[in-house]
Design goal:
Blueprint: E1 29-34, E2 37-39, E3 47-54, E4 63-66, E5 69-77, E6 80-85, E7 92-99, E8 110-115, E9 119-123, E10 127-129, E11 135-141, E12 149-154, H1 156-160, E13 168-176, E14 179-183, E15 191-199, E16 202-203, E17 208-213, E18 220-225, E19 236-242, E20 248-252, E21 255-263, E22 266-270, E23 281-285
Parallel strand pairs: 2-8, 10-17
Antiparallel strand pairs: 1-3, 3-6, 4-5, 4-7, 5-6, 7-8, 9-11, 11-14, 12-13, 12-15, 13-14, 15-16, 15-17, 18-19, 19-22, 20-21, 20-23, 21-22
């Protein structure tokens, strides 16, 4: 009988070591930092960043320089390395340069910024439809361009009760150091949430309230001040209640007038002319939603 063929020989290869080609006539070039900023505040820890560029070499002496401060760098590949941005207390843009294999820093350097933590000052709407994602304009300061940013919606009552449910978040788009925009989330029920912004993982200390109303339910009126005026009309009336939307009308009997929102629970409208006598005052959504409860 013929002998069986020999079993195929298998080779076990040792892990490969990396060999880097570089141009000894050209210094390393730093083109970008990720993230391109750190926060300027007393006692802030150094922030680990990735420096993108070219002609990086895994050799002794690899370093980053932030303005005039040098720090050790770790080689990733010929186009990336990591280093820790030193802490600073002043807001400033600095040159971020790289040195490797005895070659001096630069001249091709990236820009790196130090910013204050974000602050929040205004919100374009303080009430939105719970069933629709609504564009919000947000005002503040220290919104770092290029940073990962989001709007945060927190249920304060759930947080106080140590509810483990995370806050609702939506992505934000930074327009400038003092303005960004984001969409409100869709929520299942009427509620008021605390709103803040988070830039680069740092959340603003300031919060603003935003109320989610139900456009399919009536706006409820609980109080009117003053509750009387002359037949000629023209009296400014403050209406208190809840489930007020962003486009509302006050009805004095069957006559509707524009309602200006003072807060999530108060409106102001001007009484129209009418014959002497009492009429019910109601509020409805200007887009044709159901009429609210009346205050005679």
């Amino acid at each position: 009988l013929a002998s069986p063929p020999p079993a195929p020989t298998s080779h076990v290869w040792a892990p490969a070591l990396m060999y880097t080609y570089y141009d000894p006539e050209r210094p390393p070039a730093a083109t970008a930092a990720v993230p391109p900023y750190a926060y300027a505040r007393p006692g802030a820890p150094a922030r680990l960043i990735t420096v993108r560029g070219s002609n990086f070499v895994p050799a002794e002496g690899l370093a980053c320089k932030f303005d005039d401060v040098e720090v050790e760098a770790t080689f990733v590949d010929s186009g990336a390395l990591k280093c820790a941005a030193p802490a600073r207390e002043d807001t400033v843009q600095v040159a971020l340069c790289v040195r490797t294999l005895g070659q001096d820093f630069g001249p091709d350097c990236a820009s790196f910024g130090y910013y204050r933590p974000p602050t929040l000052s205004s919100l374009s709407l303080d009430s939105v439809d719970k069933d629709e994602a609504t564009l919000l304009g947000v005002g503040g300061a220290n919104f770092a361009a290029g940073a990962t940013s989001q709007c945060v919606f927190i249920d304060a009552e759930a947080e106080e009760a140590e509810d483990e449910a995370p806050p609702l978040t939506t992505a934000a788009t930074i327009a400038s150091a003092g303005a960004l925009s984001c969409y409100s989330p869709v929520v299942p029920t009427r509620r008021t949430l605390a709103f803040s912004v988070e830039i680069g993982g740092v959340r603003s200390a300031e919060v603003l309230n935003i109320t989610f109303f139900d456009a399919d339910l009536p706006a409820n009126v609980s109080a009117v001040a003053p509750s009387l005026g002359p037949p000629a009309g023209g009296t400014r009336v403050v209406v208190s209640g809840d489930n007020f939307g962003t486009a509302l009308r006050c009805f004095f009997g069957d006559v509707g007038v524009h309602a200006a929102q003072i807060s999530v629970s108060q409106l102001e409208c001007v009484s129209p002319a009418a014959a002497a006598g009492s009429v019910p005052l109601t509020v409805d959504h200007a887009d044709g939603g159901p009429r609210g409860t009346a205050v005679p």
